[in-house]
Design a protein that fits this description.
With about 150 residues, the chain is an alpha+beta fold. The protein folds into 2 domains: about 1-40, no CATH class; about 50-145, no CATH class. The protein contains 5 helices and 7 strands. The protein has helices at about 1-10, 20-40, 50-60, 135-140, 145; strands spanning about 65-70, 75-80, 85-95, 95-100, 105-110, 115-120, 125-130. The strands form 2 sheets. A 4-stranded antiparallel sheet has the order 1-2-3-4, covered by helices on one side. Strand 6 (about 115-120) and strand 7 (about 125-130) form a beta hairpin. The relative contact order is 0.10. The model is unreliable at about 145-150 (pLDDT under 50).
Amino acid sequence: MCIWLIISTIFWGINNMPLSVLGPLVLGGILGIVVLVHLMGWTARRVLDTGAARQAWLAEEPEAAIHRVVLADDGRAALLRLGGGRGGAVWCFGADVVVRPLEPGFARITEKDTGLRIRFDDPGAPHLFVRLADGDARRLWLTDDEEKQVA
């Protein structure tokens, strides 16, 4: 029956198909695609590891010296300590990763109970929350000026 409706639509045009048939046919097709994409594993949340965080940063700055990588507790973000005392943040955004430098004037870091909130001076990536349960690990990323702004 469904195949007949599709074939008749192709040959005689969509104007002849009643809306009571067309609506469920379109909704069924969309639902089928969503289920298929999910079953194929394309909706799985991306989780970073140390190697993936390094690779993402080096894709943007191939010459960078990465001294330390601290992964967030949920695996969705990582903080990097780079050469020259610089810092960087890498986090998952859909199937991709986002890379931003942690430099004064570009990012403001404040400590929260369960992690760090990083506010970027960038409308494309306004803020990031990095879950870090270890208070010592959180304080490593705060500068003297930022420690006074802890909220």
